[in-house]
Inverse folding.
């Protein structure tokens, strides 16, 4: 598919000739410098942007059908929690919109909160939680539909490294347990390599796919694996892909 | 009080001393706060109250000491006496102006401003046209329409309520429209990923997010409503009402009665504003300005 | 072409035009009962619709004057009367305007000075500021008649008492706005000045005053509008001798609707012009400071 934005400065080719297939159960990371279109691509899958050329299919449906059927959960860069709702009310938000019964709602909330390890915090307000906890609530909320597809746009970008490691590990556990497909946009090479089964390296202006790397790391990954040779090889390949696509050039700094 | 009587220097002297002592007390209290931060809550209430009491004492002292003619400036004690002796008149005026003109006008004005804001929410065209006009009208001397309202609705309180409605409508409209656009893009995208309908998004996201703006307008309007009703009465009213009482007693040089009415208006205005502020605290508890965030 | 339909000006003009049409329709509607009475008394039994409409829009004392009546009255009283005559709208406007401007100027000056005092002296801040804020909830305008009469009694009449009302009214928004403005520099900027070992005076002129300017102009717009209202209300108690407020009052006493409306429109034009002038000065000053976005 392709996506061109018409801006005041002339057309911006956000994405050009993207051809990609993502299979069920994969954890795919999108990495590249700013302006390479990775967020735009994610938003196109979510039906928050429309491609100007070509098509996208999500589970065999078009993105708008997928959105209306609530086939995916979306996690934004910041938690976007509604500050006037408690944690459990925030997680309940999508359920209220779809009109699920009260008892079912309670079940969903308990289940998703336990998946992100936040049982006991139901009655707290967002401003009482740390940044990492807020993002976990946001993830719990995205899981509310039991959708099999999770779209995440640099969800841990605003957090410090120690919290990030913790959340990365939790995310992997979640992915294994729920057997979901995850599309994950990130800036961080170690994060992309640690989390994914497949890494898509993108280059900017116009946004194109520079390289697709199938990870050889096993699905069970303790944090120490980040110092293994295999890990460093894959990271090296990612870096090469970025360099080849001029991501490190002066103009992209 | 006698005109041109000799100044009573003793009273003046003691008044001056009182003022100095109170000033030093306040300065000392404020300085102590630096050493003992727990004093802050006490001081927030105590210092302005000490200042207010000092003001009253100085007022009383200077007026009596210099034998200021009461028609010019009556001492607080005289005003208090007048208040106590005229509660029936004061109550009558209060009912007429505040309970009828102010409250009803306020409710209708704010209510219609709110509804119109929601009605034009889906039309960017109407917003583009009405918002600048709304801002423009807010700067105009709207109380001036009072004589026209009297002509259309008669002398009694409906014409005053009409003035209040016009005065409160525009701030409410402008602020509500501002508030409805306050929720940022990310939150609105979130609602889109839920395939949320227009009304669901309105009630679950945009209206709560507009809360701080709406309450801002409600607070401003509480003052405007009271001013509007009283001043509208200067242009003509039946024989009771706060504005009426003020303008006629001024003509009769019963200045203490005027001050009594003003005192009542001040208390009513502050209580009205205070109630709204309390409700605001409860409803928009989540907003940083209410939580006392760092400013 | 599409851009025209999307522009703000088009939207405003369309709405104004619609309002004008509604105005005329309502004028005919509201003036009808009186007009029917006129025809009855004159014994006229037949009349055409256009004649009827024309008559309702040109009554001497209409319930709702039509736009052309108001504007022609304004035109006559502005351009066709000598400026010093009591019938000239220019004369009355100047009376109100002079009180407004004087009061506004004094109020702004005082307001800035008190704001400086409040931000520099902690005791003044804790004792005075709560009262300044509380006073915004008090209907101060209600005191206007009393101030006029009292000052008249001690011999101060004419321009000064009205100006004092305007001073009192414009003072409060300026104080509140400037206190906010003087305190607006961020901690990080204050720290910067500290590293330069700047004196409080230097900090004031180089940091606090420029940061406060946007707040000054916003409060000045509020203050000048309210100073105008104060001057108008101040003209009521003295038996309405001169000024726009006086015109409003006499118009209402003698049932001269067109006079009321023309005075009201004049006041509105004044208010809008004053706020616009402040806005223009603001644009000039902030441009020179590079503060415009």
């Amino acid at each position: 598919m392709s996506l061109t934005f018409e801006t005041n400065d002339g057309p911006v080719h956000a994405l050009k000739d993207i051809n990609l297939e993502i299979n069920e159960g994969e954890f795919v990371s999108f990495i590249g410098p700013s302006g390479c279109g990775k967020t735009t691509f994610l938003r196109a899958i979510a039906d928050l942007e429309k491609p100007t050329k070509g098509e996208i299919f999500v589970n065999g449906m078009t993105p708008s059908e997928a959105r209306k059927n609530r086939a995916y959960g979306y996690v934004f860069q910041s938690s976007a929690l509604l500050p006037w709702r408690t944690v459990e009310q925030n997680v309940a938000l999508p359920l209220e919109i779809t009109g699920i019964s009260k008892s079912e709602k309670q079940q969903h909330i308990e289940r998703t909160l336990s998946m992100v390890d936040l049982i006991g915090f139901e009655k707290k307000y967002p401003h009482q939680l740390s940044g990492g906890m807020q993002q976990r609530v946001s993830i719990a909320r995205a899981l509310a539909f039991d959708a099999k597809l999770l779209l995440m746009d640099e969800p841990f970008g605003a957090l410090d490294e120690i919290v990030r490691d913790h959340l990365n590990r939790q995310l992997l556990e979640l992915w294994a347990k729920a057997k979901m497909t995850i599309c994950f946009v990130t800036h961080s090479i170690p994060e992309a390599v640690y989390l994914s089964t497949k890494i898509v390296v993108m280059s900017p202006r116009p946004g194109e796919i520079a390289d697709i790397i199938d990870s050889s790391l096993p699905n069970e990954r303790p944090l120490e694996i980040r110092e293994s040779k295999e890990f460093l090889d894959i990271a090296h390949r990612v870096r090469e892909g970025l360099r080849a696509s001029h991501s490190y050039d002066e103009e992209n700094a | 009080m006698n005109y041109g009587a000799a100044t009573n220097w003793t009273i003046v002297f003691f008044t001056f001393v009182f003022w100095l002592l109170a000033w030093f007390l306040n300065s000392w209290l404020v300085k102590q706060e630096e050493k003992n931060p727990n004093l802050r809550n006490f001081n927030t209430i105590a210092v302005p109250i000490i200042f207010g009491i000092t003001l009253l004492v100085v007022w009383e002292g200077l007026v009596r000491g210099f034998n200021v003619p009461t028609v010019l400036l009556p001492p607080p004690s005289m005003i208090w006496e007048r208040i106590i002796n005229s509660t029936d008149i004061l109550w009558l005026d209060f009912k007429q102006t505040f309970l009828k003109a102010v409250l009803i006008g306020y409710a209708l004005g704010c209510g219609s401003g709110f509804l119109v804001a929601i009605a034009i929410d889906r039309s960017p065209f109407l917003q583009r046209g009405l918002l600048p006009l709304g801002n423009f009208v807010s700067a105009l001397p709207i109380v001036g329409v009072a004589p026209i309202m009297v002509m259309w609705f008669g002398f009694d309180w409906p014409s005053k309520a009409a003035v209040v409605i016009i005065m409160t409508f525009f701030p409410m409209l402008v602020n509500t429209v501002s508030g409805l656009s306050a929720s940022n893009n990310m939150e609105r995208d979130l609602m889109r990923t839920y395939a949320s309908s227009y009304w669901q998004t309105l009630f679950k996201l945009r209206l709560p997010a507009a809360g701080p703006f709406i309450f801002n307008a409600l607070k401003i309007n509480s003052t405007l409503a009271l001013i509007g009703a009283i001043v509208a009465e200067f242009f003509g009213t039946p024989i009771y009402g706060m504005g009426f009482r003020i303008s006629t007693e001024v003509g009769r040089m019963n200045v203490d009665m005027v001050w009594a009415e003003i005192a009542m208006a001040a208390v009513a205005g502050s209580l009205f504003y205070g109630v709204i502020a309390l409700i605001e605290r409860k409803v928009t508890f989540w907003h940083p300005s209410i939580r006392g965030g760092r400013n | 072409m599409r851009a025209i339909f999307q522009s703000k000006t088009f939207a405003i003009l369309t709405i104004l035009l619609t309002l004008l049409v509604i105005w005329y329709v309502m004028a005919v509607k509201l003036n009808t009962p009186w007009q029917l009475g006129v025809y009855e008394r004159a014994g006229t039994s037949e009349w055409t619709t256009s004649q009827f409409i024309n008559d309702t829009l040109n009554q001497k004392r209409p319930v709702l004057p039509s736009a052309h009546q108001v504007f022609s009255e304004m035109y006559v009283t502005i351009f066709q009367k000598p400026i010093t005559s009591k019938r000239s709208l220019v004369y009355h406007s100047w009376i109100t305007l002079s009180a407004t401007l004087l009061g506004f100027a004094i109020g702004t000056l005082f307001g800035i000075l008190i704001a400086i005092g409040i931000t520099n002296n902690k005791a003044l801040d804790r004792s005075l500021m709560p009262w300044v804020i509380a006073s915004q909830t008090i209907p101060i305008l209600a005191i206007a008649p009393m101030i006029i009469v009292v000052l008249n009694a001690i011999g101060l009449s004419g321009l000064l008492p009205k100006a004092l009302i305007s001073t009192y009214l414009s003072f409060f928004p300026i104080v509140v706005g400037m206190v906010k403005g003087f305190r607006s520099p961020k901690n990080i900027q204050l720290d910067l000045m500290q590293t330069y070992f700047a004196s409080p005076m230097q900090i004031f002129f180089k940091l606090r005053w420029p940061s406060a300017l946007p707040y000054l102009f916003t409060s000045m717009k509020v203050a000048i509008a309210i100073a105008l209202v104060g001057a108008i209300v101040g003209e009521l108690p003295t038996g309405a001798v001169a000024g726009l407020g006086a015109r409003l009052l006499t118009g209402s006493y003698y049932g001269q609707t067109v006079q009321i409306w023309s005075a009201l429109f004049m006041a509105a034009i004044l208010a809008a012009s004053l706020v616009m002038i402040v806005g223009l000065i603001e644009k000039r000053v902030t441009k020179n400071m590079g503060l415009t976005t």
In short: Chain B touches chain C through 62 residues (CB under 8 Å).
